[in-house]
Amino acid sequence: MIDVENFKKTGYQLIKGLFTVEEIDQIRQDASNIFLNQMRYLNYPIDNINSDEDFNKLLFQLFEEHPNRLIASGKHIQHLISLHRLSLDERIVSNLQKLGLQVPNICTRPVMFFNAKKLAKKQVYWKTDAHQDWRSMQGSLNSMVVWVALADIDTSLGALEVIPESHKLGLQTTEMVDSFGLIPDDLVKGNQFVPVEVRKGDVLFFSSLLIHQSGDNSTENGIRWSCHFRYNDLSENQFIERGYPHPYVYYPNPDLITPDYPQLEDVTNYFQS
């Protein structure tokens, strides 16, 4: 049951079990299959995978031995049809409307995260410090982030931590670091972060102005799987007055990533009857 008044007060609302475990497991499997394709090509022992931990260990190995393949695979999971379909699900759209977005509109492409220290070259890739998402979105004042748990995430796995009512402080970000609008330490010092533990299929709706950060994933082999969707409200008056600003820039690489590919022989062999 959604509590609109509590959302307005605290800046966030957790809806438990909005999606079924089966729905979430299918999206996780779609993502895992992309990595498994690379593992199979590299002759990793994927037939011996009997648990999430077994899969995770091979993922760590892939990152150690072939980081570019893991990074490329991680980029492709962002374009899964099942992930994009989830971002458009009526259960999300209807709750956005209940929480005040009269005309919800996707702000930027969906993002799936798989966070673990063993899969990161920099801290920001597995743990983010206190920040506000509005700084990177720059959309409607009531813009919202929807955070979907793709695993059971408690404090040991790095549950998201929020400062309740911090959305009422307005924009506190002074700079962008690694695409995150970080909050200066002196502005969050003394504030009490509250961890939001979730189970697979739970969905956290929160204001893009809410100050939040990642918790510490202290597990040995655990990965924090989640996906994040961002929405603006096309009916918000100041968003209209500001001319609907959109800060995201997408463009293709002008160079051939695989040099001299495809050759005519590659094309002919593929399309021969």
Automatic annotation (TrEMBL):
| InterPro entries (UniProt xref) | Phytyl_CoA_dOase-like
Under the heading Pfam families, the entry gives: PhyH
Keyword list, A-Z: Dioxygenase, Oxidoreductase
Q: Name one GO molecular function term.
A: dioxygenase activity
* Parts of the chain that traverse the membrane: none
Q: Which cofactor does it need?
A: Fe(2+)
User: Does the record carry Oxidoreductase as a key word?
Assistant: yes
Keyword Nucleotidyltransferase in the entry? The reply is no
**Per its record, how is this protein called by name?**
Phytanoyl-CoA dioxygenase family protein
Q: Which organism is it from?
A: Arcicella lustrica
